[in-house]
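Reproducibility note. Readers wishing to regenerate the assembly model reported in the main text can use the exact inputs given here. Chain order matters: entities are listed in the order in which they were concatenated for prediction.
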Amino acid sequence: MAVTLQKSYSLNLPRQDVWDAIITPEVLAEILPNCKSLEPLGDDEFNANIEIKIGPIKGKFNTKLSLFDIHEPNGYKFKVDGDGVKGAMSGEGEIQLSDHPDGTGFTFMAKGNVSGIIARVGQRLIEASGKKLMDQGFKNLKQKITTVPA
Amino acid sequence: MGKLVGQPIKRVEDNRFIKGEGKYTDDFNMPNQTFAVYVRSPHAHAKINSVDTSAAEAMDGVVKVFTGQDIADAGLAGSICGWQVDFKNGDTMKEPPHPIMVADKVRHVGDPVAMVIAEDKYTARDAAELVNVDYDVLGAIVDPKAAVEDGAAQVHDDVPNNTIYDWELGDSAATDAAFENAHHVTSLSYHNQKLVPNAIEPRAALAHYDANEDKYTLYSTSQNPHLARLVIGAFVLAIPEHKLRVISPDVGGGFGSKIFVYNDECGCLWASKQIGRPVKWTADRSEAFITDCHGRDHVTDAQMAFDADGNITGLRTKTYASMGAYLSNFSTCVPTYLHGTLMQGLYTTPAVHVDVTAVVTNTVPVDAYRGAGRPEATYSIERLMDTAAREMGMDPTELRRKNFIPAFDGVEQPGYQTQVALQYDSGDYETNMDKALQVADYESLKATRDKAKSEGRLVGIGFSTFIEACGIAPSAVVGSLGARVGLYDAASIRVHPTGKVTIHSGAHAHGQGHETTFAQVVADAFGIGMDDVNVIHGDTENVPFGMGTYGSRSLAVCGSAIMKSVDKVKEKGARIAAHKLECSPDDLEFANGAWTVKGTDKSVGFGDVALTAYVPHDYPADEEPGLDFASFYDPANFVYPFGTHICVVEVDKDTGEVDVTKYVAVDDCGNVINPMIVDGQVHGGVAQGIGQALYEGAVYDDDGQLLNGSMLDYTMPRADNFPMFETDKTETPCPHNPLGVKGIGEAGTIASTPAVVNAVMDALSDYGVKDLQMPLTPERVWSAMNSNGNA
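Running the prediction on these inputs yields the following structure tokens for the assembly.
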């Protein structure tokens, strides 16, 4: 089933600081919600082990993440392809950084597909869970890069 | 009516069921047994690149992992289709293979790719998560009508345009002519949506291969253990029948979905021989949603033609019927011989034409589900009738009255020959409708509805006057139509030396109450008590070769086999009694449990005769000892129950929610053996039919993902959705079976769905809503009310 996620946030930080965080694999590993490991495969490709819980469904996904159309410091596009016993997910998305009165605007957009038991049982919960994951990711990002309390 | 027949006797089997002491397949265990879990596809359509089982096999407690490749290497064919329906041009039906597990590509979410067997079920489940399948996801096709289009995803390489067959019945030219000359034509287009059967007990298997005896045993949740043994033995696994025993113990509901021989159970049987240990598998609810055969899934355009007086002059339908991803055992006959042949309904329609295209899609296989084809036919006809009445400004009962086939009993008057192959056995449709109108107090209902409408409330009345063909079926007839089995049934009666009786029934009971009904019939026939009769069913080693329980056939077909055995017992008993009474058997009459010399008080009891048969000291010279007979009964015709269902609804103007406020069902299933069981069958059937009308339906997205595959998401009807059902009956005996019985198991499901939808359309008549697609959810009803400039 098709899933669309989109949400905008703002950060009280220069755009370059935000960019540095989202392009650095070690930082990215800490930002991605429930990411157990992130191994670089080279050329902006990563193998991520992500555990996802949607409603009553909990499962590990072996996920390939690749970044493309990288435009420093404006953002990049990404592609994910994940497999697990509880189903499969695939999708494409984009992170856009922009000028914002607070400092930096951060927009996350993704369109994807999920299949298997997550689609069958979790579909009513998936968008709400997706929003929660975005919020958590953004919170992680904010915590990671805000060295001095705002 | 005898002492027991016709009485509302409480079901004897309920003693164990209501105490939770029924014994189901999963309750059985064997020493040294293992547990199997299937690894199933999360994709609707995908190529399998590789299956890596190494991590699973390395796990502690894992006994073995099999894959689709193992099945292919073993040369196993998988389950079969039991009914051949050829193309209009004579070409043979397409019959793609349906392997036990797939090796090349998956064709629906839930298609099995591997089987993990472990020492316990938790280990099996954990290990199944470690089986790594690499897929290339392919485009999927879900919509039955779109499936035939060029460019649609191809489910099977050798099934062009996904078309299994195209088929027609009736006179196309005469029907088209009727439409050309019609005064009025009513048209409807709809999706008779895909339904999930949801039996309370999921499917299960306990399979064992005994190497010492070279013999297999399978406990399984089958509605028809002998059919299972035949199909598994002769086709799927090539096991000689005397080396395969199938036991169906208590089964918690089937509704058709447990007729079929599923690959999952066959896989367990095969695996048990490979590992030399018993294998147990029990589906969980989620698995049931994606592996139990679904029902319906017809996309239909239907039209009815009328002359200026409201007489029906023609009916034509075009249906695209999904078979799902593979052909289940009886999938092909459902939209044809169980659907097209019912399109005459109760009416004298002089020209009928039915056109069906059966297709494969990337969805769970579809097969018979309570009613099977007949609900779809009845939905077409009865929705057209109420819609036409509204369009022509007639009362829906008057339109029906004008078109009913006149009463015929099948004895004095011949059966009624329809335009679509069937010959109805007996019927009195107008009397039945009049009874329903009286029970419902139609005149006052109309006044209530009109008053409510004048107060701004939306009340509607819907009708369904239905007929169905059940008690399947004459073997020669179905054989000529493509069935690959006969459809008789069998039963034996063993009279024990003390005059107690055991019935060995070919038909299996999983909710029908055979242990009660069959005992009532036999106890009455011999003049003994219910407690003196026991019913055994469900074990191929213990019961004669019966074809099973489906198509509302148990009493009409197996009950007739029982009566044949009863007659044989009575004939032999009369000869023994005559010997004891020193008279001719012709001088005897049997009544109240004894043979009496006519016109005298000389008699001998049933128990005395039984004892004499087993202690034959003073015995007729040319008579064998014993009193034990088996009989097979092949029906002369289908049986044709009918009835009138009236539904009253109120639609909430603000939310679109439909409340069923009154439901009247007057069924005619011929002679009634146990009215309480008949009522129970009607209640359950009506509940499922209302479920289809208002709540249920498998929802797929375009990728073939089932989006409501859980009880959280798939709306089942519940008791608090219903008013108290009001049931009554007329009794038009079947002229061609010994008990004069028809069938009642499916009637409620067949009748109720259009009655409910008709009632909602009546409630919305001021809104200009022409049609609504099922299920009639509040959102759909509200949206329809608020379009057409009604906001």
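We highlight two features of this model. Chain B has a mean pLDDT of 96. Chain B has three domains: 17-138+200-253+258-291, 295-409+426-472+637-785, 488-633.
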